[in-house]
Amino acid sequence: MKVHFISIGGTAMHNLAIALHKKGYTITGSDDEIFEPSKSRLKKYNLLPEKIGWDTSKIKTELDAIILGMHAHEDNPELLKAKELNLKIFSYPEYLYEQTKNKTRVVIGGSHGKTTITSIIMFVLKYNNIKFDYMVGSQIKGFETMVSLSNDAKIAVFEGDEYLSSPIDRRPKFHLYKPNIALLSGIAWDHINVFPTFENYVEQFEIFIKTIEKNGTLIYFNDDPVLKKIVKNNNNEITKIPYSTHKYIIENNISKLITDSEKESIQLFGEHNMQNVNGARLICNELGISNKNFYKAVSEFSGAAKRLQLITKNENTNIYLDFAHSPSKLKATTSATKQQYPERELVACIELHTYSSLNESFLPHYKDTMNKADLAIIYFNPKAIELKRLKQLDKEQVKKAFNHNNSKILTDINELVTFLKNINFKNKNLLLMSSGNFSGINIAELATNLTK
Question: Residue 107: which H helix or E strand, with range?
């Protein structure tokens, strides 16, 4: 099979390119920008384009498929030529379905927790020596790539993102997988640039439930009233299994699951993660893994990258990095960190980076989301607002929206670094939250300096 990637440098795209290369496919690709770690990883497999930019000479009739990335535009010259030649054009979720349509597809959806739940399932399956294909939105310890496809695996586990599939396919990605087993973790409005109303956003999850294969299974978080309502109103011929927060306690800053026979220490923490664990357990049960084997495996799971990831620590300070950016994620992550270490002060720092978070009409949704933090730092880069063609925010506007009685609003990354360096972190934890990269600063280096 000969496959060409338009926009090969994307996070999902380059991982899929590597996965297909490992499967024996002939892969070519183009992009107008490729950053690390995509660049080094593509180079490792001799998949890095010789030059940056679009090259219509790569679009030939002998290609079996074109995979179009979200980063490309509708007027992309390679895309236009592919259409002219009447080549088969897929978004990457469409192609993942094509590769796994004869397998048992497990799809994890929801506004939050998708990556963690998917990661737990993957870790447990691998721990129990069960072969499977996968696609997940983060790097996980023990897995070289974020996508893997094979000829012999009978199971495929996908993180089901609700964002759009490609520039020419405006359907949410998770509508294209047609799961046999699905999980929904909850619904909290996000991506307002695509789904302008909450009702429109909720509708995407209603459609997702309808895509579950006949006689399939839906596992859903029962304590989310919106999700509970749409599940109840659905009359598909599927099995519906509710779940709630797994019972747990915290002893000496360690979370322990309360099981039928004992208390199982785990490295994850926070009520939200206890929900994630319970959802993952039920999925694994559906795949034939007993509770005993699940608990044994999950006790060794250290988490996915940027999901309450411990960057560094000393005897009285932990520094975490988390992908939290929406109001619900921000509140859950801040609360979890404070609950785990109630005796330590919590400094929580959020970078407003997404279209939603930098939109003045959405900003009020962040009210009280960081109230569990002793000090709340909100950072945003005016250049990011300019690039998204949004109205500029002012500091007082942001401060009022978050409604925190001890907050600091910063718009310069050097100011932020200096401010953090001037804090005495003895008996304090630092939580850094962003779906971006804090304007490119070296997080690991900063964390090391703060804990010296």
Answer: strand 104-109
DSSP state of 161: -
What are the structural domains of the chain? 2-87 (3.40.50.720), 95-298 (3.40.1190.10), 309-450 (3.90.190.20)
Residue 442, CA distances (Å) to 116, 305, 307, 323 in order? 24, 15, 17, 16
Per the rule left: phi > 0, alpha: psi between -120 and 50, beta: everything else, 49 is beta
Report helix, strand or coil for 38. Answer: helix
Specify the pLDDT at position 370: 98
Helices (H), 299-326: none
pTM above 0.85, yes or no: yes
**The pairing of beta strand 164-166 with beta strand 181-184:** unpaired
Average pLDDT, the chain: 96
CA distance 191 to 446: 30
Vertex 73 angle, CA 35 and 68, to 5°: 70
- Give the pLDDT confidence of 352-362 residue by residue, as tens digits: 999 999 999 99
User: Which secondary structure element, helix H or strand E, spans residue 78, and what is its range?
Assistant: helix 77-84
Please state, in angstroms and rounded to a whole number, the distance separating the CA atoms of residues 338 and 372: 7
Q: Are 51 and 81 in contact (CB under 8 A)?
A: no
Write the single-letter amino acid at 196. P
3 contact partners, CB below 8 Å, separation of at least 6: 17, 20, 25, 26, 27, 28, 63, 64, 65, 66, 67
The Cα 331–Cα 125 span in angstroms is 30
Distance from chain centroid for Cα 125: 20
Diameter over CA atoms, the chain: 65
* pLDDT reported for residue 179: 98
| Sole residue written with tokens 């107008």 | 32
CA-angle at 365, arms to 364 and 366, nearest 5°: 85
Dist CA 254 CA 242 (whole Å): 27
- 74 φψ region: left (φ > 0), alpha (ψ -120 to 50), beta (else): alpha
Q: What's 213's DSSP letter?
A: P
Average of pLDDT values for 103-123?
Answer: 97
DSSP summary character for residue 440: G
Coil, strand or helix at 218 = strand
Which amino acid, one-letter code, is at 404? H
Angle at 156 between CA 152 and CA 158, to 5 degrees: 150
Model confidence over 407-438: pLDDT tens digits? 999 999 999 999 999 999 999 999 999 998 99
Q: Provide the token pair at 89.
A: 């054009």
112 within 8 A of 328, measured Cβ to Cβ: yes
